[in-house]
Design a protein that fits this description.
The protein has 413 residues and is α+β, with helices and mostly antiparallel strands. The chain is built from twelve helices and 14 strands. The N and C termini lie far apart (58 Å).
Length: 413
């Protein structure tokens, strides 16, 4: 038996039911029997995916537990993507990984494979590595090659909260939290209204929505050039597009609106020693950046402002402190937008006759936050807006997507 108490940030996002969905689009003849065998081998590589989150010792808080006789996950089947990503989950009874092959009637010749893990035990880097290992096993089994199934260690690593908290004194963390509270009390950031909510809580529609804004290969190349010309990362420029689009949904035309952008920061390579991407763990923190965005703002200028503040947060330790001080941050102001850039995802090697035409990640939870995820795949760049219909309406998020798509077109014309 292997177990560990959940750290504060893990416990909070587990209590909120936040899941991380990875779905890929397969064209060709997918052998589902071989995929089921590959999944069985994946359990040997990652025992954590067979685990549970239990509260049977409530006084100690929730635990992640891997039992010696744990079984599952098993390959499921479905026909509707929206139903699959919104399926009710119970991590106390079910294995942490859910995997389903979808046969969608309106997409002949395609299979969508959907993996779902609790966000508490996965980040983009490790999730992509798990996904790559699954398809490496599939290809090996399909072609008669050796299938690597040695365990990735540590199976259940130490919480990122503890690793980062050791860098700071309690006084440093208290001062950090107090300063953040002072900033937001003096000038509260703007938030999207939540018309789908009821009496201050989630509304009755417990489904999720995902909307994509895609730049094709030519647009993506032009976006990279625009970022380079402005001495920006692509992440900063795309964040500028998203934040400028968000600004159009608030009143006060022309005047500045204070926006609180939470940007995900991969801490793996910043740990000593670095944490390999193959280790399945939540090893990303977030940095909350406060920006004044005027009506009609230039997304390049907004991206430059964000980039400057993000670099400062990394250099002065604010990114690490934000997670180290997590228990004291729970009552602070929520973000206007959460942005995660997962970078370029590499297509796995597959047997002849099988192609993976897309891979996407989506954080989903019934929380009053819109999660934007940016990724590149096979030369294309995609921004996805992920949201709960218990808080937001499709009309709202489609309006945000339309504004982002318009700005993207203008920048890449």
């Amino acid at each position: 038996m292997t177990e560990r108490q959940l750290a504060p940030h893990e416990a909070a996002i587990t209590a909120a039911g936040v899941r991380l969905v990875l779905h890929c689009d397969i064209v060709g003849e997918l052998d589902e029997a071989v995929l089921a065998l590959a999944l069985a081998r994946l359990r040997s590589c990652y025992p954590l995916i067979t685990g549970r989150i239990t509260t049977d010792r409530a006084e100690a808080g929730p635990l992640a537990r891997i039992g010696e006789t744990a079984t599952g996950p098993f390959l499921g089947h479905g026909a509707d993507f929206d139903e699959e990503i919104s399926a009710p989950l119970n991590w106390e009874q079910d294995p942490l990984l859910r995997i389903t092959v979808l046969h969608e009637p309106d997409r002949p010749g395609h299979r969508r494979v959907v993996l779902t893990l609790p966000r508490a035990f996965a980040d983009a880097m490790s999730y992509v590595a798990v996904h790559q290992r699954l398809w490496t096993l599939y290809t090996a089994l399909s072609t008669g090659r050796p299938a690597p199934d040695e365990p990735v260690r540590p199976v259940l690593g130490p919480a990122l909260d503890d690793l980062l908290a050791a860098r700071f004194t309690p006084r440093q963390l208290r001062d950090f939290v107090d300063e953040r509270a002072r900033l937001d009390t003096g000038a509260p950031p703007a938030l999207l209204p939540t018309p789908a909510s009821r009496n201050g809580g989630p509304g009755p529609d417990l489904s999720f929505g995902i909307i994509e804004i895609e730049a094709d290969a030519d647009q993506c190349a032009q976006l990279v050039r625009r970022a380079h010309d402005a001495s920006l990362t692509v992440n900063a420029l795309v964040s500028g597009i998203l934040l400028t689009a968000l600004r159009t949904l608030f009143p006060a035309p022309g005047g500045p609106v204070r926006i609180l952008c939470t940007t995900a920061v991969d801490m793996r390579r910043r740990l000593v020693p670095p944490l390999p991407y193959e280790v399945l763990q939540s090893a990303a923190t977030t940095t909350s950046i406060r920006l004044e965005v005027a009506g009609g703002a230039d997304p390049v200028a907004v991206g430059q402002d964000l980039d400057t503040r993000l670099r400062a947060a990394l250099e002065n330790g604010a990114a690490a402190m934000e997670l180290a001080a997590f228990p004291h941050m729970l009552d602070q102001h929520p973000p206007s937008l959460v942005i995660t850039n997962v970078g370029a995802i590499t297509a796995p090697d597959l047997p002849d006759g099988l192609r993976m035409v897309d891979v996407c990640l989506a954080p989903l939870g019934h929380v009053p936050m819109v999660f934007a995820v940016v990724k590149r795949y096979q030369g294309r760049l995609t921004m996805t807006l992920n949201y709960s219909r218990a808080w937001y309406t499709d009309t709202q998020i489609h309006a945000l997507a339309h504004q982002a798509a318009t700005l993207l077109t203008d920048l890449t014309a």
